[in-house]
Queue: 3 jobs
Job 1
Amino acid sequence: MDWQAFQVSISLALLTCLSLLPIGLAMAYFLAKSNFIGRGFIEAIITLPLVLPPTVLGYFLLVGMDSNSFLGSLFVSLTGQSLAFSFVGLWFASIIYSLPFAVQPMLRSLEGIAPEIREAAWCSGLSKWKTFFKIELPLAWPGIITAMVLSFSHTLGEFGVVLMIGGNIAGETRTLSIAIYDSVVAFDHQQAQSMSLILLAIALVTITLVYTLNRKQTRVAVL
Amino acid sequence: MLQVKLQQTLPTTLDVELHCEKGEVLALVGPSGAGKSTVLRCIAGLQSPQQGLVSCKGQTWFDSEAKLNKTPQQRRVGMVFQNYALFPHLTVMENIKLALDIDKEQHHQHGKRLLEQVNLSGLEQRYPHQLSGGQQQRVAIARALARQPEVLLLDEPFSAVDKVTRRKLYMELNTLRRQLDMPVILVTHDLDEAAMLADSLCVIHQGTTLQQGVPETVLFKPNNVAISRQVDSRNIFTAQLVEYENKLKLKWYDYFIDVADTSQFKLNDHVHWTLSPSKVLLHQRVRKSRGEHENPLEVTICDMVSLRGITTLILTVEHTDGIRLQMDLPEHVAMRNGLKIGETISVTLLADAIHLMSE
């Protein structure tokens, strides 16, 4: 069992899902409230990582993080390190490829709140911020939890993008899925099996959680 | 006092002018899609018209010329939405507390008082989905009142409850309104509901307010035929004013009909006239009365329907090419007189109740 890879995977998944909480919520809130012409295009861009082959996405991200690119050179000037093949680069890439898993459930749950509920809050004297924190956020909570769980588990299991962006640096970018691949290539099936079982258990628990929360959300929406 | 003037051309036409005094219930009536809810939303600040003025208690909430548009939070409006829009994740007490605009220490006490006012004591800890439609409506009213609003807006508050509950809620609202000292606007498409609960009616059609006045006037003396149709006048006919036996009378087919008030019209005017079905009186077959000299008509009963003690007769008037007149009378009167379809009876059109309208 490669505990170092396990630690990298868990840290990456936790950081990604915590970063996606404000980012995804802001995007979902903006999309739920607006109805502009290019909305479909923006939604398509956010959803793109869901349908693109991970290697394609990984390639574009790798190009974007190159030291000659704007983002890559900015990172080098700030930290003196290369963004590609680093944990920070991997974290950034994880935010991009897990974005649809965070935004979509949040968007659906925010859209599911009847506009009258929001308006009733305003007529009750609640400011827009208070309405968000006291009414919208609690009502959208199951969707937000779903988003967090999905982005955590998706980040934990991602392989293609991680390989393209992070490579395979032990303690830095070598995640559990990469370690499993390495074990299989090295014919160490016992190690591959134990690590696979851990990922399987995490996936099963998270998906069960998602379904349970979705059922709760449907019940609230029906009321 | 609440004063509202709204005008817009897009996306829907609005040409609204209404006013509502302190303690008065004004019913905004009109068919679905007439713009009733839009008017409420404009008063609440949830929507803004292109032009207009909304002022309440001497404070201006919206003035297009002065470019003033206060937010719903700044307007002190109590609004009861059609489906009540209760916060589903909060208990009854929490729903009300959220709207309370007083010291936190007094929240619980004040919330309890509001729940008592709407007869909901004991249900403080229930969630909206654990309440019946009628109870939900009461919570919505309590929440709307919690903010001590300067105007109370009720958007079809009885449409989501069954008939039995509705009747009960009418009584409760009637009692509650006596305790309120703010203008109350009730949006409804039910004329009976409006006439029962409101001090004044305002008819709205295709975004335009047509007439505002006491229910009796709007329902039985509408300003014109369009309003008459909106308030479901069942007897609308055309005739000409002529001089007959030294009086101005309505020449309607072969009949010369006495009308009490012709002051707004002159000889030879072509007019519409309307008469409430309850103001058509049956001549008793057994005992003759003095009233039989007042606009007597021979009519044939071609249909009759009884509902809740009132029998409506559809009558064909003799010598009028089959013109139909509607008449309402108590069911027991219809039974006592042995009225049957196909029979010919004699009726009186009350001259006092005939209302003339220009074409």
Job 2
Amino acid sequence: MRKLNGIRLKHRKNTENSQTVEMPLPSKVRIPMSMHMGAPCQPLVKAGDMVTVGQKIGDTDALFSVPVHSGVSGKVTAVTDYRTAMGAVCKAVEIETDGLQTVSEEVKQPAVTDKESFIKAVRESGSCGLGGAGFSTHIKLNPKQQIDTLIINAAECEPYITADYREMIECPDDIIGGINLVKSMLGIKMAKLAIEANKPEAIKNFTEMAKNDDTIDIVTLPSSYPQGAEKVIIYNSTGRIVKEGELPADEGVIVINISTVGFLYRYFQTGMPLVTRRLTVDGNAVGEPKNVRVVIGTSFREVMEFCKTDMESVKKLIGGGPMMGMSIPDVDMPVVKTSNALLAIKTYDERKTSACIRCGRCVRVCPMGLMPADIDRAYKIKNIEELKTLKVMLCMNCGSCTYVCPANRKLAETNQLAKALIPRK
Amino acid sequence: MNKLIVSPSPHDENYVKTTTIMLNVIIALLPALGVGIFMFGWRALTLTAVCIASCMIFEYGSRRLMKKTNTITDLSAVVTGIILAMNLPVTLPYWMAVIGCFVAIVIVKQLFGGLGQNFANPAITARIVLMVSFPGAMTNWIKAQDYDYDAVSSATPLVLESKGGDVPSYLDLFLGNTGGCLGETCALALLIGGLYLAARKIISLAAPVSFIGALALLTAISGGDPLYHILAGGVFLGAFFMATDYATTPITTKGKIVFGLGCGIITFVIRHFGSYPEGVSFSILLMNVLTPYIEQLTRTKVFGAKEAEKNEG
């Protein structure tokens, strides 16, 4: 059996023992209409409207999109244009909180009778992948193909981030409940809870909890980045290979993030949609690194100040992990559904790129078995046929090649640019 | 607050840089160079210094002339200088060594685009150019530990063997107590350097092992003495420091093995059938030229890739 390449990273899980802290309610939130993959929502409220906690404030008919809800009660002050970290433009609803946190009457336990009503309720929850990608949960849980295995992604392979880990430690019953809920609703026989080996306590706990349940299998993933990548986790927990152009469902599996599963369970108990999230705040500019639970729409500035960040020294802000996270251009941007971590870094030097020395490190680390050095060459001369032969489309942008490159070449970035050259069928 | 830096992921990096790699190669070359100086005297040191200095000057000058960024700090020119010096007889006139450096740095390396772009190993090519241009000076050997630069023409072990002379013992070959180029004689020191690089994960042992293995096997089959043949001449220097050059050898392990086997076979053919006593340099140069084709045939297998449809287009 083929062993997939990977790299050893310093785990830097400084916050793994930090109990999640509720952040005080901000005086103002700004909630973007695009926090998921898919078309942005249209705002359902206008300036001057009063809103309550859990009230739907944005929705759309677009297939992949999920609605947006308010996490505070208060008054809408403005509906503005907003540019996301991805560069997309959408509307954002600004709400001044009244501090009462009145819960909306829309919030009630969803009535679920069959798969169809379950999927509909999942959509209404506003749920999307909480691991960072933001893929709509109701689409993921409703494939045409026959599914026999549900994989719960608890790899959390990026350095620093412990948000999923704290979910496992603090809410293990919600996770098991969520797994059983999804399994029974979709008629899936087997669930595999895949945890990276650097989280022994979580592995021990869940092995104990699931010891009398032979439909939940606890899988220990090797401690090498990127275990959380979808194709890698599927291969390492089931041995199945998702081939070029296929979806996980084509191999009979669904992969879902562990925090998403925990959230789904709570939603079906309480009816409270996705309006808060746990995120790890860390990085060397942060005075008190910790896990916080914040209302979606809270500005990063407030989160950083809450964690005693030396604001003057911050050179770089990363939403997510250091390997695949996004640079945040502005501290006043809000926490969104997919914000699993906020890293404030004060030591960052712009790297100087030098010539490729053909050392082959990028080739040895690529989990997909690609040859980034050759892709780099082919991209330079825009050789599209060669790029196709080199299978650049299979790059998942894990960043391992850029990380190891001694010449500081931005290989992962080049791969993404090269993908754009290949015409879509 | 500062302006935030915005850049694509990843935002973290490894500490191994090009300069680190080159520095490690220099460290790995030091034992063999030290033995060379001990065996052949102070001129080994000055010849090496001349090579390093002229390589750096040529590197700086040609980059400057071509209006390209100065790459002197990546230390690759220093590595080329040391390896080239180690491939020269200690008695070689300095001006010939400078010509070798010119060939290595300007013609082979910079004219093809600089570091990582050269098709052949600069030091090997320079050695061959010098060998065909100045065959007399390039085969002017002195006895080890004799330090008499006028009492020349102590033949190398391979010449002695082919002419049926009094061959040195395995121990002398292993420790470098024999005639030859100033850095190639001591198999032990070269082995230490090579293993150091392998331990630091700078080089893979695939090419050296298959190179030395193929040569030993073929020599044994042909009735020769395999141990003598791998210890004598430039096999260890070539296998560990030149058949592992990044730019001019294949990237994948499969490719490295093919490369090493090819080097071993060609070295054997030249030594056994050719009129030259030594074939390491030519074998590596020939395999350098084949490298692009080896690379084409030994690419990695992409995870989950579907084979290209045969009838397409």
Job 3
Amino acid sequence: MGLRDVLFGKKKLSEPKADQLFALTTAAVTLDTELGLKTAGAGAIAFKPQSSGEFRSAFDDVDQLVEAVAKQCGSEVERKSDEYGYDWIIAKDPDLEDLVATAHTLASELTDKGFGSQLLAAIFRFDGYEHPVYFIYGFKRGAWWPFVPAGESTRDNAKELELKAKLEHELPIEQDLTRWLALFDAPI
Amino acid sequence: MVLLALCAAGLYCGIVAAIVVLALVEPTWTPYIAVFAFVITIATVARYGSAGGLLLGATGAEIVPDDEEPALHGMLDRLAALADVPKPRLALVDSPAMNAFTVGVRRRRSTVAVTTGLREALTPSEIEAVLAHELAHIANRDAGLMTVAGVPRALGETIMDQNGFIWITWFFLWWLGVPIWALGSLITLTLSRYREFAADRGSALLTGNPAGLMSALVKLDGAGSAIPGEDLRSLSPVEALCVVSNGRSRFGFFADHPPLEKRLARLAEMARVMGEPVGA
């Protein structure tokens, strides 16, 4: 944050950092063999759409993009809106690498179209414990954090911190706990 | 704005220079001046340092735990992530007045408070726009900036406040406090109006929906004068960070918030240009 931002206020949102997205595929082996967590075959990216007509028309292209990406990566892809006004592009594929690749392609295509600052997070679901385990990638931070919902609006912090400790060497984990965004009603 | 920054810098330099010159002209006074400057600084810092916690208490704001009010938490969490700021704490004020405000000088310890009146009366997209406005204040570090910019004003108030001094000292110093306070106030209020515009713009960027904030502002403005008796006027020290002013002077140099028409006009302009290709 430069002096200009301090004096005049930020003029735009920060751009996404998608470069650490693939780190999840490297951590997949540890997740599977040591922690007993397997991909649930679903991943998604969430972004905040704008209300303007131009954005909407540009977003008709996104539907075509989604289809193209689905074909290219061989994943099943669909688009949904949530009650908070965010759009989700959900990918289904039994292979985690394909899921991550799909998310990365979608994120970079959206960034190329100029909507990168609107990207909120990528989220991947894993099963193997009592509750589903999610790994969330914050595009603004370029880092991962675990999210284990234990109820409608409670999360299993103990399990999350345990996952952080076990994966820290393989996955760039967000160190600032106040940034561990919860996505309770993620549609995956 | 640049002029204002220069003006503020000039005032700071002026105060420091006056102290230095006095010390040089009368070297024997140096210890007294040092002690005096120290006391004033401590008094000024104390005035602001305690503001956050006291204010939350004074308004009856209660921190909302993470597992309550899921809709508000959900909105705030997502917006904070999008704005790339640490998640602030959420507080609710049990009051029919409609307003929202932010306290906390440091970004990590910020609290965003909304009144129950606001939560009941606004639609979700309007509430989201108001929360985004408050988050933009946090992202722009407005509480910290306003505190620093507010030092001359607080210094003037401290000097003019006779309680802290022996009567005779106060008699000689009072006239010194007046111009510092006046110029300090002008700077603080002008800066505050500017920061409101910046926070409005930030809200529009975050929600992608300038119309949400426009309709929220119209509702809040309409309600302001109709709320009887007890409202948030006790918030005066953080008033600069409320989404709408608490009903004191609204126009010209003595307003801390810009007039509604100007805010709406700027948001309408944003609504027109948003969605144009990046770099346009």
